[in-house]
């Protein structure tokens, strides 16, 4: 009886008072999210697969439906001959309020790590639509001038549009640690740069962490610019970092609460490689972050390979001294209090020990 009561209360808690990560399981890396009125939209990377860049829709951050793909015809994306791990890299999804237009910007690598070990960094491209629910309405791509990948579009309050990208920066700064962030102001109608590309931000991490800054997202909160970056590479040292400045010319102040998400302090955790985040505010004023993470099947000291790929995770965000903090500063877990859980399909298990299937077994007890 006691056991039954405990079990029931456990179930009730997990169903009503917590949500379960990942929120979008499977191959869904580099999530970028926006909210427009009561609707959330989220996009992820698709690399050498077609169609490119799924667009997910949700009303509550928990139940997500794929409503189409932003790149769905050859005039937008032609992957013929694209190498494995080439194709579509991290996208950013943004909404331009003044023109009621959605923009999705990304980078198409036709070749990565060719035999001379020199990865070319192509120019990024964006597509736009005023009706994100209609997959066919996405425009043909507009290519930008500035080289680099992991592009971000930022619409400033004065009407200017800024593009930031990630580029190998050793040629200008031997201490860049290689990948760093560059910025240019663009004309959103043509994609053309209006200013020269400028070396914008480099990681402050020790050189062997490794020092890499990628996946930038720029925001303005209460008149201050905030820069969110994915640092230290996409493996177990991966983390998200915040900096802020009164000016796009810096200097950048580092958050005392960095890293924003980072499970890599304990490599035995079942969730690793947390990073490449984006942030969104709910209609009730609460804040959330989405980011990628992996579920290595043998996490002890990170030797496990994440067979499920890089998936989309969610955590609540609170603010302290004007700095965002994910999950109260705690590591990311499968169950996180808040929002709601949704019914999960039963787990099906077969050990292939005999000629017949072994039936259904529910390993989560729920
Ligand atoms: C490319 O890198 C690999 C691995 O480090 C090395 O074995 C190979 O010689 C390099 N190729 C060239 C052309 O530098
Ligand atoms: C590291 O994570 C593992 C798996 O969650 C846990 O068992 C262990 O206690 C953690 N170690 C430390 C030092 O927190
Ligand atoms: C992980 O690696 C560290 C450093 O090599 C070692 O001290 C620790 O015992 C290892 N932990 C496990 C659980 O294997
Ligand atoms: C902006 O300022 C308002 C008023 O001081 C405050 O309530 C809010 O939390 C601030 N927002 C951010 C994102 O810092």
TrEMBL record:
<feature type="signal peptide">
    <location>
        <begin position="1"/>
        <end position="18"/>
    </location>
</feature>
<feature type="active site" description="Proton donor">
    <location>
        <position position="214"/>
    </location>
</feature>
<dbReference type="Pfam" id="PF04616">
    <property type="entry name" value="Glyco_hydro_43"/>
</dbReference>
<keyword id="KW-0326">Glycosidase</keyword>
<dbReference type="GO" id="GO:0005975">
    <property type="term" value="P:carbohydrate metabolic process"/>
</dbReference>
<dbReference type="GO" id="GO:0004553">
    <property type="term" value="F:hydrolase activity, hydrolyzing O-glycosyl compounds"/>
</dbReference>
<comment type="similarity">
    <text>Belongs to the glycosyl hydrolase 43 family.</text>
</comment>
<dbReference type="InterPro" id="IPR051795">
    <property type="entry name" value="Glycosyl_Hydrlase_43"/>
</dbReference>
<keyword id="KW-0732">Signal</keyword>
<feature type="site" description="Important for catalytic activity, responsible for pKa modulation of the active site Glu and correct orientation of both the proton donor and substrate">
    <location>
        <position position="150"/>
    </location>
</feature>
<keyword id="KW-0378">Hydrolase</keyword>
<dbReference type="InterPro" id="IPR023296">
    <property type="entry name" value="Glyco_hydro_beta-prop_sf"/>
</dbReference>
<feature type="active site" description="Proton acceptor">
    <location>
        <position position="30"/>
    </location>
</feature>
<protein>
    <recommendedName>
        <fullName>Beta-xylosidase C-terminal Concanavalin A-like domain-containing protein</fullName>
    </recommendedName>
</protein>
<dbReference type="InterPro" id="IPR006710">
    <property type="entry name" value="Glyco_hydro_43"/>
</dbReference>
């Amino acid at each position: 009886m006691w056991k039954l009561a405990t079990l029931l209360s456990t179930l009730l808690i997990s169903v009503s008072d917590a949500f379960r990560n990942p929120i979008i399981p499977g191959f869904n890396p580099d999530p970028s999210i926006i909210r427009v009125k009561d609707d959330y939209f989220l996009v992820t990377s698709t690399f050498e697969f077609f169609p490119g860049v799924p667009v997910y829709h949700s009303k509550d951050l928990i139940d997500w439906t794929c409503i189409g793909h932003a790149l769905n015809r050859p005039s937008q994306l032609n992957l013929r001959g694209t190498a494995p791990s080439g194709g579509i890299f991290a996208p950013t999804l943004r909404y331009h309020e003044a023109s009621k237009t959605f923009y999705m910007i990304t980078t198409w690598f036709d070749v990565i790590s060719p035999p001379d070990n020199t990865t070319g960094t192509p120019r990024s491209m964006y597509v736009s639509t005023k009706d994100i629910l209609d997959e066919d309405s996405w425009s043909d791509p507009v290519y930008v001038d500035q080289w680099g990948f992991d592009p971000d579009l930022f619409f400033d309050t004065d009407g200017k549009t800024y593009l930031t990208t990630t580029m190998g920066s050793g040629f200008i700064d031997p201490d860049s640690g290689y990948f760093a962030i560059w910025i240019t102001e663009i004309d959103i109608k043509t994609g053309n740069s209006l200013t020269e590309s400028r070396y914008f931000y480099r990681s402050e991490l020790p050189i062997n962490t490794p020092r890499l800054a990628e996946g930038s997202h720029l925001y303005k909160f209460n008149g201050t610019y905030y820069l969110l970056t994915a640092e230290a590479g996409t493996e177990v040292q991966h983390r998200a970092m915040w900096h802020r400045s009164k000016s796009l010319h810096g200097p950048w102040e580092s958050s005392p609460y960095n890293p924003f998400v980072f499970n890599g302090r304990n490599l035995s955790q079942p969730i690793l490689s947390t990073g490449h985040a984006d942030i969104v505010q709910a209609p009730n004023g609460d804040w959330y972050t989405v980011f990628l993470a992996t579920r290595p099947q043998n996490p002890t000291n990170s030797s496990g390979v994440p067979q499920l790929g890089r998936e989309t995770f969610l955590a609540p965000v609170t603010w302290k001294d004007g700095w965002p903090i994910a999950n109260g500063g705690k590591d990311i877990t499968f169950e996180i209090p808040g929002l709601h859980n949704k019914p999960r399909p039963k787990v099906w298990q077969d050990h292939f020990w005999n000629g017949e299937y072994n039936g259904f077994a529910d390993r989560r007890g729920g």
